[in-house]
């Protein structure tokens, strides 16, 4: 049967698309790697881990792990010319990596759809006569709500301190900013816990459906169509980021915010957590999901993937660094306006994008314009990843079952099937208890330990099982001019060592997931681990199957 599939593949893969222009691949990768993590995670990590001192472990991690992993995945995909599910057939013992990557990509795209629905809601509300997160006169506000113009906010506890000049300290502990209440009571309509899922937030569900309809018609014809969209969605967010940066650095208090962002604390370099955060950030933004393998498979065999990998690394890390200036200049302004310290407003993740930044933008002249511009940037950043992940899901299934290439509407049908599956998985995340499901899937399924495990297996599969010298010869076949023998040592020693170290460190310090100091119930923790294992288990399962099928033992399996 497998021989039959390979025979069919040889005839049907003629229908597999290729990049039309050189920049099609480059911009698609940039759009995928430069995502929300560059905006809502890196600046906070930099501030938290010693400011400018954090750049030392970060840059070292990029050189020794990030770039080698990026180049490994892209060169691998370009050499085999197949998606992530079929590419690992080159290393039979590691065939399961393809399906593991497929599962993670599916989970990640479900998460991105929800984030886009949140951002779309904020974007539309930015055109309201009065920004709804700035007032307390709405039906979702409580008696403890304090409007932004009268409060100093401590978002680490989601409480606000005493209104400036009021002299009232009795009720200060219970005061909650209007932005927090808008996020929790209106956008999420947050339930008491995971056991109380509540009803569907129909407004968010409509945004979710609408966004996926737009996405479908942008990518249902494959890269021939999606690249036209990516030229806009990958470049416009960078332009918007520059605009937000220019506006931010001109605000009163911006200098204090930037100083807070970059002020070096060299003593932090002695803390293991700082180095772990650097490696983790690099992993999340540089690869490990198999998407790069699929995108590179559309390249011509002699495409200069080494040059592109360098450019992608510079744009990716450069955007992360520059976004810190945009974020902390604005937060410095906000802190000065409210006469509070920057520690009280510094935040990462959704809290930065959907609570703190809307507050900060509401204090700038013409807040509606800046809010709309900011959330449009978030939507475009999310769309880039969503387009790329969806294309990789579709082509991976079509590579596994190449008969679909012969059907006139084969790609469109597979695309529609995945859209329905992803919307079905995302629907629980737009209910009243959706934030709990979102965090559970994000922590265990789309990120966390499983990403490090798969990345470690990729390094081991190509550098140790297949052979680093053997694989480097394939790279030289594609790029005869390249002279980068140093990267072989990163592939064989540095990459797998650091990846395994982060994995062990993560597992050693594992704590049950919690939200607002409430620990998830045991059954939810078990469900989370099952989500992670649903991707990672494919690797040992396929390895055992290959060994069982082989009459010559492990040596025969490793001999290709």
UniProtKB/TrEMBL annotation:
UniProt topology in membrane: Multi-pass membrane protein
CC terms in the record's Gene Ontology section: cell projection; plasma membrane
Predominant location: membrane
InterPro entries membership: Na/ntran_symport (IPR000175), SNS_sf (IPR037272)
GO molecular function: gamma-aminobutyric acid:sodium:chloride symporter activity; metal ion binding
Keywords: Disulfide bond, Membrane, Metal-binding, Sodium, Symport, Transmembrane, Transmembrane helix, Transport
Top-rank taxon, per record: Eukaryota
One Pfam family, short name: SNF
Disulfide bonding pattern of the chain: 136-145
Transmembrane annotation, as ranges: 23-40, 52-72, 93-119, 202-223, 235-262, 282-298, 310-335, 369-395, 416-440, 446-468, 489-510, 522-545
PROSITE patterns to which the protein is assigned, alphabetical: NA_NEUROTRAN_SYMP_1 (PS00610), NA_NEUROTRAN_SYMP_2 (PS00754), NA_NEUROTRAN_SYMP_3 (PS50267)
Subcellular location: Membrane
Sites where the protein binds Na(+): 31, 34, 38, 285, 316, 381, 384
Family to which this protein belongs: Belongs to the sodium:neurotransmitter symporter (SNF) (TC 2.A.22) family.
Protein name (database record): Transporter
Species name: Ciona savignyi
